[in-house]
């Protein structure tokens, strides 16, 4: 299948003031250092624009691949180091040192080979991915001389497991992503917000190119509705059926084709009217629920669905 590509008929508007407000609110709330998650091009918002907007509020960055830190020149432009979550693909110690990046480690051999890059222990508390099981923690800590450890926690129980496993050793500990920022016991020595940085900052919209009264079963699926319209965005651009706004009123994307989609309309809706796919009263969580996926995936897909523009 052809790779997803932006639709030239969709606008993705990103408000950096909202991102800035979000991180300032988080900093005031948690009162511990912030490791800002900017992996996957800052969830699709554009790492080159997001990082400068928040760099004075963060202690460090969190990326998945070392190449993300290198291509965005995070150290050169911000003077802040990075934590690299994913496995290395041929990256050596010198590569990490050049980017002032610290690799996450979960195996003795990896920890030993990256010792000079000051590796950070990734502890498995249930994710079972890129993380060290309890029985190997002592060996990995010793091999990497680690002074920091973290886990991917989805609830307080996993935070408690991290503390029970490696606490009391003088290690810097962090576990809380966006979902646990409201839990004081999860904040430990730092937090790693991702989605919480970007909530409400993106507005995605397009225009109706057709509007007509329905004269029987329509589309490939034979849907039926009194009135429908068409937008020029489809599954090749990353769109799915679900919620939307037409002229500010709640509506539905009924069927998605390759490069166009059918939208349910009212009598007052006409060709040229605006259709909002994200923003205003539609949140990332709303889209995720309609798409039966996470708000993280919904946001990342919609940020790539059209041409990005910025304000703030």
Short description:
The chain is built from twelve helices and 16 strands. The protein is an alpha/beta fold and 312 residues long.
Descriptive account of the structure:
The protein has 312 residues and is of the alpha/beta class. It folds into 2 domains: 16-198, Alanine racemase (TIM Barrel), CATH 3.20.20.10; 202-311, Beta Barrel (Lyase, Ornithine Decarboxylase, Chain A, domain 1). Helix content is 29%, strand content 25%. It is built from 12 helices and 16 strands. It has helices at 16-30, 39-43, 47-54, 66-72, 74-78, 93-98, 108-113, 137-144, 156-166, 195-198, 284-291, 295-303, and strands at 11-15, 35-37, 60-63, 82-84, 101-105, 120-122, 148-150, 172-176, 190-191, 202-213, 227-231, 242-246, 249-256, 261-264, 274-278, 307-311. The strands form 2 sheets. An 8-stranded parallel sheet has the order 2-3-4-5-6-7-8-9. α6 links the parallel β4 and β5 (101-105). α1 packs across α3 (47-54) and α11 crosses α12. The longest helix is centred in the N-terminal third of the chain and has 15 residues, at 16-30. The protein is elongated. The chain starts with 10 loop residues before the first strand and ends with a strand.
């Amino acid at each position: 299948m052809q790779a997803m590509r932006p639709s030239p008929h969709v606008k993705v508007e990103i408000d950096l003031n909202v991102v800035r407000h979000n991180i300032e609110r988080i900093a005031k709330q948690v009162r511990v250092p912030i490791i800002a998650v900017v992996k996957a091009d800052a969830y699709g918002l554009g790492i080159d624009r997001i990082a400068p907007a928040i760099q004075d509020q963060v202690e460090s960055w969190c990326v998945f691949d070392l190449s993300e830190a290198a291509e965005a020149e995070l150290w050169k432009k911000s003077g802040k180091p990075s934590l690299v979550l994913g496995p290395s693909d041929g990256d050596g110690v010198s590569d990490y040192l050049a980017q002032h990046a610290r690799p996450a480690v979960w195996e003795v051999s990896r920890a030993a080979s990256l010792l000079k890059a000051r590796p950070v222990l990734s502890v498995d508390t249930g994710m079972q991915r890129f993380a060290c099981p309890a029985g190997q923690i002592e060996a990995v800590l010793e091999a990497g001389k680690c002074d920091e450890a973290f886990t991917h926690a989805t609830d307080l129980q996993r935070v408690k497991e991290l503390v029970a496993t490696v606490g009391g050793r003088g290690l810097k500990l962090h576990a809380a992503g966006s979902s646990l920022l409201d839990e004081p016991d999860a904040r430990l020595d730092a937090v790693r917000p991702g989605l919480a940085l970007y909530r409400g900052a993106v507005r995605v919209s397009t225009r109706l190119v057709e509007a007509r009264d329905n004269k029987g079963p329509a589309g490939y699926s034979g849907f039926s509705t009194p009135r429908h319209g068409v937008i020029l965005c489809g599954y090749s651009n990353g769109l799915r059926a679900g919620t939307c706004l037409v002229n500010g009123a709640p509506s539905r994307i009924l069927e998605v084709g390759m490069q166009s989609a059918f939208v349910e309309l009212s009598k007052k809706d006409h060709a040229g009217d605006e259709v909002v796919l994200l923003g205003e009263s539609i949140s990332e969580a709303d889209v995720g629920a309609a798409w039966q996926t996470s708000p993280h995936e919904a946001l990342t897909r919609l940020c790539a669905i059209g041409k990005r523009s910025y304000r703030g």
